[in-house]
C-alpha cells in the first residue's frame, strides 16, 4: 500500500509535535505558556472534528478548555504545567477506555463490531462478531492500562521519565497495538476484506455523524 502525500505530511507533523512536546516538557522551565502551546492546538483540532461530526457540546467544551488554558497562562495561573500535561494524557486515555468499554453492553454491538460492519459493508459472521468484540475489550484494557501507568509514573518517577512515557512510549505502544491487531486479524480471520487505515477513519467519522440521528443504529447493519 503506497502512502499518500497527505498521510506522510500528517505523520511528519505528528513526529514534529511529539519532538516539540518532549523538548518543552523536559528542557524548558515549566511554563503555563508551554502548556498552552502543546495543548491548545490539540483542543482546537478536537473542537473542529467534533463540530464537523455533529458533536456540538464536545466542540464547545474543547474550545472553552483551550480558552481557559490561555486565560490561565495570561493571568499567571496557579496550576503547574506538569499537572496540565498529566490531565491531558489521562483525560484522553480514560475517555477512550470509557468510549470503547461502554460500547460492550450495547445491543447493536461493540464499537469495533460496528466499525467493522461499516468498513466491510457486509454482514459479519458470528466468529467475526466475537473477534471484534474481543478487540474492543483489548482496546479498552489498553487505554485503561496506559492511563494507570501514566498516573503511577507521574507520582513515582521524575517528571522527565513521565514525559518520555507520554511522548515516546505512548505513540509506539499505539502503533504496536494497531500492527499486532492487523496481523492477528488476518491470521485468525482471513475472511475479513483488506481495509486501510483511511477506511477505518472514514467508518469512524460516518458512525459519529450517524449517532445523533434517532433510530439510525440499525441502518448500517
Structure notes:
- The C terminus is likely disordered.
- The chain contains 8 helices and no strands.
- The chain has a domain of 131 residues.
- α1 runs antiparallel to α7.
- It has 221 residues and is an all-alpha fold.
- The longest helix has 31 residues.
- Helix content is 76%, strand content 0%.
- The two termini are 28 Å apart.
Map the helices and strands.
Elements (H helix, E strand, L loop, with lengths): L4 H22 L5 H21 L3 H19 L6 H22 L8 H10 L5 H31 L2 H30 L8 H14 L11
Helix pairs in contact: 1-7, 2-3, 2-4, 4-6, 5-6, 5-8, 6-7
Specify the overall morphology. globular
What is the SS-derived class? Answer: mainly alpha
Number of helices: 8
Rg of Cα set: 19 Å
* Average of the residue pLDDT scores: 77
Quaternary class:
single chain
Low-confidence stretches: 212-221
Main sheet record? none
- Cα-to-Cα separation, first versus last residue: 28 Å
Helix content: over 70%
Element order, helices and strands? HHHHHHHH
Strand content: under 5%
Number of strands: 0
Give a short summary of the structure:
The chain has helices at residues 5-26, 32-52, 56-74, 81-102, 111-120, 126-156, 159-188, 197-210. With 221 residues, it is mainly α. Mean pLDDT is 77; it is low at 212-221.
Task: Throw out a few tags for this protein.
221 residues; mainly alpha; 8 helices; disordered C terminus
